[in-house]
Each structure stands twice: as structure tokens, then as C-alpha cells.
Design goal:
Radius of gyration: 19 Å
Number of strands: 22
Strand content: over 45%
Distance between the termini: 42 Å
Helix content: under 10%
Strand order of the largest sheet: 16-17-18-19-1-22-21-20
Number of helices: 2
Order of helices and strands: HEEEEEEEEEEEEEEEEEEEHEEE
Largest sheet: 8 strands, mixed
Length: 254
């Protein structure tokens, strides 16, 4: 009996200590066209320019230009590279690959490749924290782990395990490090976006982004993936793999 009593007390303590998860939903403020052939893997703004990376072997690309318009800059990744998440850090654009173990440093203006850096494991999402100084990169690999990396060398510097109500959350995909200090993560194969505290790994909000596409649009589309904070607003631009539209949304209580 004493052992069972201690276990019960610990479990209750864990529940009491778990942060409250807010339930939010995505409300559409505006709609923009999107290339329905783009297998979107990463999305990020710098000023008025939207950067987007796409995946699939032989179809992976990186593009940049005004949102909702044809890109003004475009590069392809040669096979066997499979493009994944991207982020901008100063004069660098980092571009992940899925199972190739390669991060590509690019020139943000021309998109030209500068060098390649190796890493272990898979590459999924990537973002750069809005902090004083150089900050750090945050990377996902499809598990419950967010890995921190140096923005200049891409060297691993630490990480956190993501938990909701004390339980691991896997499938963390495209990431956005927002000005509010949180990391927003698409959850693979779902219409869910999570808001994560990068200091602790705790999920602070569950965002429902279901129902954005019509039934006919859904038949030709795949998963929600791609999230970028819209500069100067409290909104985000979100889309998905092979989606014909992008959505400027805000997150409100559900």
C-alpha cells in the first residue's frame, strides 16, 4: 500500500504541474494562390519575400518571391536530394534534406549554394529563434525531439523533448520560430499545429487548422505543411503539400 500511495501522489503531482494547453483554431483572413504542384516542406518570410522549399526526389526546389505570385528566384535540387525545411539567419539560408544527411548553406539573395554540412538522422523542419544576438536554429526530425544548432556552423548545441500533458508528441514537421518566442510545429499527417515553449518543450497550445480546403481541393492535396509568421501582423501564412491555396490566418480560442 505505501508504494502504491507514493506512485499515486507522484502521478497527481505530474498532472498538477503540467502546463495548461490552450485550444485554438485557425481563422482565415485572406486567401492566396499556391502552386498545386509544390510538395511544400518549408515556408518563411523575410520582409515582403516568401521563401518556400519543396520536396520529392527529382522535384525538390527552393523558390522566393512575393507571396501568391510566381517566384522571382528558383533553384532545383538534383537527385537524390529530397528537400525539406528552410530558415534564414543573417546572411545565410539553411536548407535541409530528408534522409541525405546534408544541410545546404545558401545565399538568401541569389539562392546559390555555398557549402554543405553533414548531420545525423533525418531533416524535417527548421527555424531561427527571434532572440538577441545570433540566436539558435531549431530543427525537427519527425520524432518528439527539437534539436538546437549553431546558426553559423550548424553544430548541434542541445535540444528539448516535446511533451503535451507529460506525454511525448511525435511527427513534428515544419517549424516556425515566431516573434512571440514560441515554436509553431505542423504535426505530420494531421491538420494540427502545436505551439511549443522551446525552453521546456511543453506544448502550450493545440491549434485546429482543419477545413481550409474544399472537398474537391482535398482530393488532389496531401498534408497540411508550411507555416510562416507574416511580418508586422499577428497572423501566419499556412499551406500544405500540393495545395492550390495558401491562407493568411490568425489563431483564436476554439
Amino acid at each position: 500500500m505505501p508504494a502504491r500511495g507514493r506512485a499515486t501522489a507522484t502521478a497527481l503531482g505530474d498532472v498538477a504541474a503540467a502546463p495548461r494547453v490552450r485550444l485554438l483554431r485557425a481563422v482565415v483572413r485572406d486567401t492566396l494562390p499556391h502552386d498545386s504542384r509544390a510538395f511544400t516542406q518549408g515556408l518563411e518570410f523575410r520582409g515582403a519575400t516568401l521563401y518556400e522549399s519543396t520536396g520529392l526526389v527529382g522535384r525538390s526546389s527552393l523558390r522566393a518571391g512575393p507571396p501568391g505570385r510566381p517566384p522571382t528566384r528558383y533553384v532545383e535540387l538534383p537527385a537524390p536530394l529530397f528537400g525539406e525545411g528552410i530558415t534564414l539567419s543573417g546572411d545565410k539560408l539553411w536548407h535541409l534534406t530528408w534522409r541525405n544527411g546534408i544541410a545546404i548553406e545558401r545565399d538568401p539573395t541569389t539562392l546559390a549554394e555555398r557549402r554543405r554540412v553533414g548531420y545525423r538522422g533525418e531533416g524535417w523542419g527548421l527555424c531561427h529563434e527571434h532572440t538577441a544576438g545570433r540566436g539558435r536554429l531549431v530543427m525537427s526530425d519527425g520524432t518528439d525531439r527539437l534539436t538546437f544548432r549553431d546558426p553559423d556552423s550548424f553544430t548541434e548545441t542541445g535540444g528539448v523533448n516535446v511533451r503535451r500533458d507529460g506525454r511525448p508528441v511525435t511527427g513534428l514537421n515544419e517549424l516556425e520560430c515566431a516573434p512571440d518566442g514560441f515554436v509553431y510545429a505542423n504535426v505530420y499527417t494531421t491538420d494540427t499545429i502545436l505551439r511549443i515553449d522551446p525552453r521546456t518543450g511543453d506544448v502550450s497550445a493545440h491549434i485546429d487548422a482543419a477545413g481550409l480546403l474544399t472537398a474537391s481541393e482535398r482530393r488532389g492535396a496531401e498534408q497540411l505543411n508550411g507555416i510562416a509568421a507574416v511580418p508586422g501582423t499577428d497572423g501566419f501564412l499556412i499551406t500544405g503539400k500540393l495545395w492550390p491555396r495558401m491562407f493568411h490566418v490568425t489563431f483564436v480560442p476554439r
